[in-house]
Write a structure and sequence with these properties.
Strand order of the largest sheet of chain B: 5-6-7-3-8-9
Order of helices and strands of chain B: EEEHEHEHHHEHEHEEHH
Distance between the termini of chain A: 58 Å
Shape of chain B: globular
Bound molecules: adenosine-5'-triphosphate, magnesium ion
Oligomer: heterodimer
Number of strands of chain A: 0
Strand content of chain B: 15-25%
CATH class of chain A: Mainly Alpha
Helix content of chain A: over 70%
Number of domains of chain A: 1
CATH architecture of chain A: Orthogonal Bundle
Largest sheet of chain B: 6 strands, mixed
Number of helices of chain B: 9
Helix content of chain B: 25-40%
CATH superfamily of chain A: ABC transporter involved in vitamin B12 uptake, BtuC
Strand content of chain A: under 5%
Radius of gyration of chain B: 18 Å
Number of helices of chain A: 16
CATH topology of chain A: ABC transporter involved in vitamin B12 uptake, BtuC
Largest interface: A-B, 25 and 33 residues
Structural class of chain B: alpha/beta
Order of helices and strands of chain A: HHHHHHHHHHHHHHHH
Number of strands of chain B: 9
Chain lengths: 310, 253
Amino acid sequence: MDILPWLTEPLQYGFLTRALLVTLAAAVVSAVLSCWLILMGWSLMGDAVSHAVLPGVALAYIVGIPFSIGAFIFGAGAVALIGAVRATTKLKPDTVIGVVFTALFAAGLAIVSSTPAQVDLMHILFGNVLGVTSSELWQVLILGAVTLAVVLFKRRDLTLLAFDRTHAHVIGLNTRFLSALLLGLLALSVVVGLQAVGIILVVAMLITPGATAFLLTRSFDHMLVLAVGITVAAAVAGVYASYYLDISTGAAVVLSQSLVFTAVYLFARPNGLLWQQRRRRIRRRRTAAAPPPPTRAASSTTAAAPLGKS
Amino acid sequence: MSLPAPARDSAPAAALHVTDLTVTYNEVPALDAVDLTLDSGLICGLIGVNGSGKSTLFKTLMGLVEPQAGSIALFGMPHRQARRSGLVAYMPQAEDVDWNFPVSVNDVVAMGRYGHLGATRRLRQADHAAVGAALEKVGLESLRKRQIGELSGGQRKRAFIARSIAQEAQLLLLDEPFAGVDRSSEATMTVLLKELRDEGRSVLVSTHNLAGIPELCDTAVLLHQRVLAHGTPADVLTSENLARAFGTMGSDN
Ligand SMILES: Nc1ncnc2c1ncn2[C@@H]1O[C@H](COP(=O)(O)OP(=O)(O)OP(=O)(O)O)[C@@H](O)[C@H]1O
Ligand SMILES: [Mg+2]
């Protein structure tokens, strides 16, 4: 079987080419951002922002403005609201995040359900990458490029913020600005990912790539490269799988990312689960096979028996 | 024994000058009208019972806690300006650091240079040299490629000291650096801190290890919301003072 026609066949459809481009843009942007988000411990924040954009998207469709404007306003608004409530109460962060994003998500559902059928809830929730228009494609590409440029320009400051916020403050960096910047970029990348996989699954794009890369390396730069590489491959595989197996594109893309994560979790050297177990087995066999230490008989009678225990 | 070190051109006499500093958390006073002046080029030990306000003093000096009253001058400047000039360094407590973070020892030390760099924090030749020299000084040259969590407890502390050396900080704030560190690592760090002192840097270090103070410190401050005593270790560590500071332990909550 010839592989080339198999690969090019879907691309003769304009909508599939656009779908591939949108998915790739979303994959690259969210993969890069996910590296910082998981190190900041902001995975839940990604979930919150993605749900909180629902009213923004619904209102944008109703009013007839580009969806990304509505989504960004509500995404950034949710972040600001969470920050304000946290600063003025002693509630734990995840509690505040939970209260705010569910409220906004419910508001979004209420708006969608009270308007005539012009807003397709399923498309917002689960993505409609096969129906992307070329103006939407441009929105995604431009926003993606801006997000990526800012993140890479400030990447060393953001890494310092994630690693040691106090040091950043002590050497005179504006840590509040940097946090706000990272949250703004988070909101932007949610907007970028929305078209590809929808509100519900966009958080997967913001967590799984970084998590997968984290398991593979102990260097941040390698982590960035690996996250992008893995995610691009998974995105392409997902789009083709959705074409040939006739499954939802968003689901296929996220599933292929999850499959890579699972494979890395199980098989990656040296820290994959199977290698860990193998090492444990070998160690156990070695201890069992080793000849009993000469002092064993004597030491087993005493309370402290370091040799006999090993 | 300890003559005041000659003041450097860049640093006016007092590394730290605090007057009437008052900090309260929800109406509970943590610092109450603290007056404190530290000459530069000295190591000062900060001692006091748990809850006496040591960490609060550090946080206030760094501008992380807003005082209700009083003023702070570091090398004659407001703390904000001193921080921007890269004069202040802080060593995080071990439990505040994410040891699984994917950064190398070299990366951590390089973060000391960031205040001196342009917007993208790209290291130049001279910065790489400063990082290398700092690593060499603390004896971690051969471990520079290791991930930060792959160091022992004592080596981790030295990595953060190297970061403040690379930063060329003039005031080092160390909050309980000897907690969980064994005798020999403590001795290594004592030597290192005294070398930095001899180069003209000032060190404020809180510790619960009273026995180590005469060896490490030029001056000592006994804190209990207020400054109970301040002077040479011999003057401060009298049994009478210690009874005043530590004997009140049961009655303060
Ligand atoms: N964030 C906070 N909110 C409320 N009270 C606080 C806070 N941090 C400290 N305190 C209180 O302020 C007082 C001084 O605390 P601080 O942490 O400065 O003491 P410390 O001298 O560093 O103690 P330790 O030796 O245990 O580290 C204590 O009574 C403490 O309970
Ligand atoms: Mg403390």
